[in-house]
Amino acid sequence: MRRWLAIIALFAAMLPAGSPPGSTAEILLTESEIAKALSHGPWPLPGARDMSNRASGDPSAIMLGRQLFFDAALSLSGQISCASCHRPLDGFTERKPRAMGFELQDRNTLALLNLRHQRWFGWGGQNDNLWAQSIAPLLKPDEMGFREDRLVSILASAEFVEPYTAIFGPLSTHSVTESLVNAGKLLAAYLETLETGRSRFDLFRDALAEGDLVEAATYPQAAQRGFKLFVGRGRCSLCHSGPLFSNGEFHDAGRPYFVEPGRVDPGRHGGIEALRRSPFTLDGQYSDDNERSEAWAVRTVVQQHANFGSFRVPGLRNVAQTAPYIHDGSLPTLHDVVDHYSNIDLERLHADGEAILVPLRLTEAEAADLVAFLESLSGAPVGGIPGPN
Ligand code: HEC
Ligand code: HEC
């Protein structure tokens, strides 16, 4: 490690002095910035089976889950499927600011990629596992709703009956709630397979890790300057850290949280409330992990006033494909997000102790560099079976 850092320093020193920036391929990062670049990989991350879901990793469950995902018959009206909002061709999200089920929802549709590496689900972290989050829209009458008879007839159909029984046992022995949870586990088995591919940034990061400076230097100069801002003056990587570009926790990024006059989105505060009430957590009776090895998180979570207006730090992989942005979809483009951080209104920060964020007052060129870096985090979706449309 030390050795190639020394080699990079040597390489940098050999570059012709005074050459105008951007004219030649060169590495603009300092040693400590290179170390930070390495911390955002490698990608893809190895993924373990979800112990709380007996269907996790089972090939027939993945196929059935995919079937359910595209099946509008699951919904109360027979017209809305998961894919109506999570559109495969739009990065498993949609272009609307806020989702529309039977009624307008309060929040922007989250993209369904790289979910197997997450601990909390939803903008407020209202679920601690993927199968519970996968049935949440069915349990909400104003989002999808569901009809018990339809669910049972799908699960009992010729296509489902055999693999369902092999995984969960005979349907006839299951209550409606158990059947619904099992449908959630099939959906989760499918969703786990959806991952983002390797991005331009990953090639840069791995070239640095391998000491391949020629390859590393081909990463665009604007993206390199943007990365320097991201880990430096912008302090973005304090929250958007690691291979997912998220610490997985909840923060106040200074966006307004009124849904309409007189009504707020409580964010993490409401998420913790929901976790406390939910029978579907990793600590509850529907988890297949008898050891409850991951249940410590939900057991130890503490609700504080500062959780109001805090939302889950979104991962930034494929972020260029998931506009509009923020929990309520109120920022249409990445330029708008960067402008928000550049001119952040400190009065807006409701949570205490978020002194990390200060108005950055970026020049237009700096803002463009930061956007160039964010755009370099995209890779074509890989793995999984994206499915129709
Ligand atoms: C009406 C639009 C709509 C439909 C239909 C819908 N979703 Fe969602 N989905 C959303 C919205 C909005 C969010 C963010 C919810 C929140 O934070 O409260 C979300 C969040 C999620 C998440 C959490 C992702 C994360 O990063 O934490 C999962 C998983 C998910 N949906 C799966 C599904 C599945 C499975 C279905 C079908 C059974 C479905 N959704 C149907 C709009 C929809
Ligand atoms: C204090 C932690 C924190 C810091 C520092 C931070 N962010 Fe964020 N970021 C968040 C949170 C939380 C959200 C979601 C806010 C919301 O929904 O209200 C977010 C949202 C975003 C989004 C929108 C993603 C999406 O899918 O909607 C982008 C892009 C983003 N941040 C980039 C940046 C950049 C660039 C910087 C540095 C200039 C930065 N962030 C600094 C916590 C942070």
Structural features, described:
The protein is an all-alpha fold. The longest helix has 16 residues, at 176-191. The protein has a domain at 59-191: Cytochrome Bc1 Complex, Chain D, domain 2 (Orthogonal Bundle), CATH 1.10.760.10. The strands form 2 sheets. Strands 1-4 form a two-stranded antiparallel ribbon. Strands 2-3 form a two-stranded antiparallel sheet. It is 37% helix and 2% strand. The protein contains 15 helices and 4 strands. Helix 6 (148-155) crosses helix 8 (176-191) and helix 11 crosses helix 15. The chain has helices at residues 2-14, 31-38, 59-69, 82-85, 130-139, 148-155, 158-168, 176-191, 200-210, 213-216, 221-231, 268-277, 296-300, 334-342, 364-375, and strands spanning 250-251, 258-260, 263-264, 311-312. The structure holds heme C (2 copies). One heme C binds next to helix 14 and helix 15.
Overview features:
mainly alpha; two-stranded antiparallel ribbon; two-stranded antiparallel sheet
The gist of it:
With 389 residues, the chain is mostly helical. The chain has helices spanning 2-14, 31-38, 59-69, 82-85, 130-139, 148-155, 158-168, 176-191, 200-210, 213-216, 221-231, 268-277, 296-300, 334-342, 364-375; strands spanning 250-251, 258-260, 263-264, 311-312. The protein has a domain at 59-191: Cytochrome c-like domain (Cytochrome Bc1 Complex, Chain D, domain 2).
Catalogue the unreliable spans.
9-22
Q: Please tell me what the overall shape is.
A: globular
Distinct bound molecules: heme C
- Report the CATH superfamily of the domain at 59-191: Cytochrome c-like domain
Helix and strand composition category: mainly alpha
The percentage of residues in β strands lies in under 5%
Radius of gyration: 23 Å
Q: Report the order of strands and helices.
A: HHHHHHHHHHHEEEHHEHH
Question: First CA to last CA: what distance?
Answer: 46 Å
* CATH architecture label name of the domain at 59-191: Orthogonal Bundle
Main sheet: which strands, in order across?
A: 1-4
Strands, total number: 4
> CATH topology of the domain at 59-191, what is it called?
Cytochrome Bc1 Complex, Chain D, domain 2
State the helicity in percent bands.
25-40%
Number of helices: 15
CATH class value of the domain at 59-191: Mainly Alpha
**Mean pLDDT across residues:** 91
Sheet with most strands: 2 strands, antiparallel
